Amino acid sequence: MIAEIYNKISKTGSNLSDRLEDQLTGNFFGSLRYLPFEVGIKHILLESFIPERLRNCIDNLHIDDWHEMIEFWQDCRGDGVEPDVIIKMADIVFLIEVKLYSYLSTDDEYDESSRIDKEYMLSENQLSRESRLLNSKYGNYKNKVLLLLAPESSALKINNDIKKREQNGDIIIATGVDFGYITWQKALSALQKIVVTNVFQQVIIQDLINLLIKKGFTQFDGFNWEIPDINPEYYWLFQ
Is the dihedral of CA 113, 176, 59, 82 positive or negative? Predict the structure, then answer.
C-alpha cells in the first residue's frame, strides 16, 4: 500500500516485478508504524550491527507514537539520492537503505590500484552519497546513522567491501556518520522474540513474521532433534 501511495508502483501494477524491493519496504515499515516504538521497531534496531554507544542510545529511547517520525522515499534527487526510509527521533536520525535482490545502485569502478580521495573526488558509491546526504540535511542531529537492511549474504559482502576499501585509505562513509547493517534474517529473529498481550499487536507482528518467512529469510539455528545415546558395545566391522 505505501509503495503505491508514493507512486513506486503504477496504478495498474504493471511495474510490480521491478518494484518488489519498494513493495517490501512499504509493507514492512508501513506495518511497523502501527506498533508502538517499544513494541516493534526498537527491537529490530537493537539487532543491528552498530557501535555499542548507538545501541545504548536506542535502548534509552522511550517513545509511544512514532509514526510521524518516519519518511518514505524522500525527494532528494537534487542530491542524487532517494533514501528508502528516514527515521528521526530525539538526537538520532536513521537513513535506512533497503535491499532485497539488488546490489548497490551505483558504485565506483574500483581496483586495488585506485583510490577515492576527498581532496580530488567523491565516491559514487550509493552508501557514500547517502552518508553525505545525512551530513548535509541532518547535520543538527548528534547521531547520524546509515543503516543497510539486506539479506545476510548481501549485507555481509557490502559491509566487508566498505571496510576493505576504508582500510586501504578510501573515504566511503562520510565523517560524522556511523554505518551499520541489519540482515532480514536478524529482523525476522527480532520479531519472533517479541512478546505482547495486545491481540491487535499480535496480529501485526505475526503478519510481518509470515511475510519475511514467505520471502525466505528464515535463519538456520542448529539441529533440533535429539542425539541418541551411543552404546560402545554396538559397532560395525568394515573390510
Answer: negative
Pairing of strands 70-72, 85-89: antiparallel
**Length of the chain measured in residues:** 239
Q: Which of 131, 123, 17 is nearest to 83 (CA)?
A: 131
- C-alpha angle with apex 199: 194 to 201, nearest 5 degrees? 50
Task: Judge contact between 137 and 76, C-beta under 8 A.
Answer: yes
Distance of alpha carbon 87 from alpha carbon 23, whole angstroms: 18
**How far apart, in Å, are the Cα atoms of 197 and each of 42, 76, 202, 203?**
17, 40, 7, 11
First to last CA, the chain: 66
| R_g of the chain, CA atoms, integer Å | 21
Q: What percentage of residues in the chain have a pLDDT greater than 70?
A: 78
Question: Phi and psi at residue 179, in whole multiples of 5°?
Answer: -105, 135
- Residues 99-127: tens digit of each pLDDT: 988 767 655 555 555 555 543 346 788 89
Strand 143-150 and strand 177-183: pairing? parallel
Using alpha carbons only, give the angle 74, 75, 76 rounded to the nearest 5 degrees.
105
Give the C-alpha separation, 108 to 95, whole Å: 21
Locus of grid cell 503504477: 10
Contact yes or no for 103/154 (Cβ under 8 A): yes
What's the whole-model pTM score?
0.82
